[in-house]
Amino acid sequence: MYFKDDESRLLISPLADKNELLDNIRTGRILVNNHHDLTLAIRAHLFGVKNPEYLANDMLADAKRINSWNVGSGFNSAIKQQCKVVIIDLYNQQQKNISLNIDELSRTIVNRHENFTSGTIEKCYVVWNNKSIAIDRTFFDGFNNSKKNRPYKLKVVEELRKLL
Questions:
Q1: CA-CA distance, 19 to 93, in Å (whole number)?
Q2: Which one of 27, 74, 100, 132 has the minimum C-beta count within 10 Å?
Q3: Cα gap 139→128, rounded to integer Å
Q4: Other beta carbons within 10 Å of 58
């Protein structure tokens, strides 16, 4: 059972984690406002278990509020939680008045190409400055480890520039 957020299409469980609720609502609103095909719900919190915060189009999704541009640990953590969607929330970086490091962020996302091509991860949302972009396996169609990954990095860079 969910109730609808007054300011967006976001759905919220009355049993959502109260400690992260404001952050999850802020991030959720940005996501649904930027991705009109996204159905997003903040899930009930299960005590004693590190559980994913969201259901994104009926797939488990977790917000990773990281303090660096290397998002690999966020992907690893989401995969351990059996998430199909990773939400990279860069609000902490933004609050420190740190500029978005597109080059480093795109490099670390491209390094996760196997997560996308294998289907382990269906989608990655990146949230910055009230904007969000989505990266999925189509960004890595034709990726071959024997080739240079520059064209794939450029596709991701182009997408991340939409956040500026």
A1: 20
A2: 100
A3: 20
A4: 9
Q: Helix (H) and strand (E) counts for the chain?
A: 6, 8
CA–CA separation, 37 and 123 (whole Å): 13
CA 5 – CA 87 distance, rounded (Å): 19
HSE, side-chain direction, 13 A CA sphere, residue 41: 16
Sign (positive/negative) of CA torsion 139, 100, 86, 129? Answer: negative
Tell me the per-residue pLDDT of 93-110, one tens digit each, with 9 for 90 and over.
Answer: 888 888 999 999 999 999
54 token code pair: 């969201």
pLDDT tens track for 31-79: 999 999 999 999 999 876 678 999 999 999 999 998 888 899 999 999 9
Q: What is the rounded CA–CA span in Å between residue 34 and residue 39?
A: 12
- Residues with Cβ within 8 Å of 148's Cβ and at least 6 positions away in sequence, in order, are none
Identify whether the C-beta of residue 53 lies closer than 8 Å to the C-beta of residue 42: yes
Per this entry, what is the length of the chain?
A: 164
Question: Reduced to 3 states, what is the DSSP secondary structure of residue 40?
Answer: strand
**The two structure tokens encoding residue 93:** 């970086």
